[in-house]
């Protein structure tokens, strides 16, 4: 307990010191790795799906931050013209998982988020409160990207089976991180969801001035709450699943 109090004292001293310094602004680059095979059914259908779906999918994201606002978005490169069929399939899947126009805007002072989400070729504007998950700071320390970091574990609500472990650094006193996660006394630099199903890792961090227009609240799309969007997406995915099953599921890489 004494050790934990010492750690917390260091955190809050760091934050207090940062507040009297110039505003911290810059960009953090992350790599997201998703294990596509985790969660697939352990049966013949699941095996067929594994033949069509690569085990891992990887894409890059960027968090542009100030002490009061952040903007998180996907990074996409132009598709090379000379790809074979397998490479084209990988690019298609990456684009579906990380649409280039998806962004998450966070107002850290107001505690609100506005996100643009593409789904089934439509754009939605989702307004919600900041994802200030309940965290337990474990006291474990480790270095990530050359910065001293502390570990925190997500405290789920009753009935929630999600597991999330993050590492955050008080050296960058921004209460934010990838995918709208925040609520910790420092920038989240590493996130592990469901024991490796999704890993988001910081690859580089640049402290620089933010130009006008780099962090802007999105305005385009059909307005929905997060609950409405998730319910709609769940319904559409169930409809698509039934359509796939009616066509015999996955067959040699074709839908």
Task: Give the gist of this structure.
Helix content is 24%, strand content 36%.
Overview of this structure, please?
This protein has 4 helices and 12 strands; from the N terminus they run αβαββαβββββββββα. The chain is of the alpha+beta class and 255 residues long. 24% of the residues lie in helices and 36% in strands. It has helices at residues 2-19, 44-52, 85-97, 226-246, and strands at 26-35, 56-65, 69-75, 103-107, 112-119, 122-129, 135-144, 147-154, 164-169, 187-193, 198-207, 222-225. It has one domain (2-246): Lipoprotein localisation LolA/LolB/LppX (outer membrane lipoprotein receptor (LolB), chain A), CATH 2.50.20.10. Strands 7-8-9-10-11-1-2-3-4-5-6-12 form a 12-stranded mixed β-sheet. β2 and β3 (69-75) form a beta hairpin.
* CATH topology descriptor: outer membrane lipoprotein receptor (LolB), chain A
- Strand count: 12
- Give the CATH superfamily: Lipoprotein localisation LolA/LolB/LppX
Strand order of the largest sheet: 7-8-9-10-11-1-2-3-4-5-6-12
Could you spell the SSE succession in H and E letters? Answer: HEHEEHEEEEEEEEEH
The CATH architecture name reads: Clam
Tell me the Rg in angstroms: 20 Å
Termini gap? 56 Å
Q: What are the segments in which pLDDT stays under 50 over at least 5 consecutive residues? A: 1-21, 250-255
Main beta-sheet strand count, sense and barrel state = 12 strands, mixed
């Amino acid at each position: 307990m004494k050790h934990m109090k010492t750690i917390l004292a260091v955190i809050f001293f760091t934050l207090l010191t940062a507040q009297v310094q110039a505003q911290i602004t810059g960009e953090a680059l992350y790599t997201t790795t998703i294990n596509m095979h985790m969660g697939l059914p352990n049966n013949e259908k699941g095996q067929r799906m594994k033949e069509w779906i690569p085990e891992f999918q990887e894409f890059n994201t960027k968090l542009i931050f100030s002490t009061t606002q952040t903007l998180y978005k996907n990074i996409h490169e132009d598709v090379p013209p000379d790809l074979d069929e397998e490479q084209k399939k990988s690019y298609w899947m990456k684009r579906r998982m990380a649409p280039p126009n998806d962004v998450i805007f966070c107002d850290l002072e107001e505690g609100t988020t506005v996100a643009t989400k593409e789904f089934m070729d439509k754009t939605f504007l989702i307004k919600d409160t900041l994802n200030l998950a309940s965290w337990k700071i474990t006291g474990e320390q480790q270095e990530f990207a050359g910065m001293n970091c502390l570990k925190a574990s997500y405290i789920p609500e009753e009935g929630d089976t999600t597991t999330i472990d993050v590492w955050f650094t008080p050296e960058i006193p921004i209460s934010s991180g990838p995918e709208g996660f925040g609520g910790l006394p420092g920038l989240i630099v590493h996130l592990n969801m469901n024991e490796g199903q999704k890993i988001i890792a910081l690859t580089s961090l640049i402290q620089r001035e933010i130009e006008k227009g780099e962090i802007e609240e999105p305005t385009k799309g059909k307005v929905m709450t997060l609950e409405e969007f998730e319910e709609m997406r769940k319904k559409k995915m169930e409809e698509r699943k039934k359509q796939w099953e009616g066509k015999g599921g996955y067959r040699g890489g074709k839908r």
